Amino acid sequence: MDLILTGIVEAFRLLVTLDDEILRVTLLSLQISGSATLVSLVLGVSSGTAIALSEFPGKRLVVSAINTGMGLPPVVVGLFVTIFIWRNGPFGFLGMLYTPSAMVLAQAIIATPIVTGISFAAIQHLPDKLRLQILSLGATRAQMVWMLMREARLPILAAVMAGFGGVISEIGASIMVGGNIKGYTRVLTTATVMETSRGNFDVAIALSIILLMLTFTINYILTSIQQRGGR
Amino acid sequence: MKRGGKTALTVNGLLVEVGGTVILNVPRLALAPGEVLAIIGPNGAGKTTLLTSVLGIQRYKSKGIVTRGDLAFPGTPPHIYRRGFSMVFQDSLLFNASVFDNVASGLRIRGVGRWEVKKRVDEQLERFGIAALGERRALSLSGGEAQRVSLARAMATSPEVLLLDEPFASLDTPTRESILDDLERALSGSGTAVMLVTHDRVETLRLADRVLVLEKGKILQEGETIDVLRRPASEFVASFAGTETVLAGRVARSGGGIVVVAASGLEVEAAGEANKGQRVALCIRPENIVLASAGRTKTSARNTYQGRVERLMPMAHYYKAVIDCGFPLVAYVTQQSMDEMGLREGLRVHASFKATSVHLIKKEH
What we know:
The complex is a heterodimer. Chain A has helices at 2-16, 20-53, 59-69, 74-85, 100-125, 128-136, 141-151, 153-168, 172-178, 188-198, 201-230. By secondary structure, chain A is mainly α. Chain A has one domain: MetI-like fold (Orthogonal Bundle), CATH 1.10.3720. In chain A, α4 crosses α5 (100-125) and α5 runs antiparallel to α8 (153-168). Chain B has 10 helices and 20 strands. In chain B, β11 and β12 form a beta hairpin. Chain B is globular and about 75 Å long. In chain B, 25% of the residues lie in helices and 36% in strands. Chain B is an alpha+beta fold.
């Protein structure tokens, strides 16, 4: 019990005094997961919308694949990204292994199907005749797509939040492709694992509290948006 | 509302197919500026497909040319061609934005400047009685208010052709009446031609200059509203026009401008000419039937039948009586006549109507 209490007290001290290492780890986490989410936003929203608005043979197969991808185990993604960027792998010449770029890549692969899947559902959920209504107002195809996305903005925002929430808290892929290098690829999750294994519970608890606060903030924003949209 | 001269819209050789089956075949159709054309027909007749085809949205394989003003489709970039149209559906299909932004959407799509947008939106909000709702979220409006916003949005772009796909169908009668008033005012003098898909006789009579009847994708009848409703070419139009009694029969004999039709084991006389043996449908409007107590049979009408009052149903301003005289005959009776005759269910009565009150529809087969 003492261990936990001391841990929590020490954790708050580290947080209040803005410990350099903890700050660096937090910022890097935000940077990497933020970039990955941005990539997944561009890829996911556009492909989700495109799939929802077009008819093609095998569409059901594609949608099923995306839905499967929404639950992609990060460890599996980490494994495949590692294999591809391994020194002797097909993209080994890029020298990406154990870099923040590799982590962004892996996290983007995890988040993109989540954003795609939710965006697809959001656009498909709009009334069928809304497309006709927008076209009848004289919209070009691009204007129509933009207006549909705007109509689906709340669920699309939820998709982005879900994607970010998924990658900021994952560890499997980050540790495999990033390698947890201090000051370079060490993020909240990988640092927590390391500190715990070393018995530095105070630091681990401080890192966990930050992670929890970040996740809570995301969910709070998400809930507020949904509540506002529901009114 | 009609104006002569130019046409607002011309349809030539429109043919729409789904899986090899023709679902719409409109060889020619023209609409003058300011003219209101009602499109009626049973479900699945192709009414909505006609509107979307005219709008240049080809969801199915289609042929034919539609011309709006000087622009032909196919042949003009779709959005340019469509910018002379507006469409309102049964669902108001508003955007999740303020009422003002909704009404402004068509203008903003066209890149109209901010001040001009404000001027034209305010004008429409005023016209449709929703000026006080400008800042409200559109999705929080009642059905009637939402449909007003939808109409204001459609009229804000001053369309040459307004397409209405049963826009009043889900509204209660007082709301519909009041929106119809506003729409009539908005249309008058605007030069906007209208294609109105409707299932409502009152709407048709109030708004339409002409009626087009579609059945199984084909034009069954087209003409001035009153002509079509008075001389329906099909049982569907007859019932749409308010004919409550439609009887199937065969011509027994004909001559001297009178056709005698055998229907339900009785003979019914109708004005007109037809060949013996021809299959026909007889349409009798309820207001043309005269009821009398069983003892008083003096009448000049050629068709007089004895029957029993099967049902009496109160309507808004009269009663609807179903008389069983070998076939069910529907008549309208005023409260005063009811009282004078002591009309009640089960009472024996005489029902009579003139031969000229029977409209004859000749069937093809």
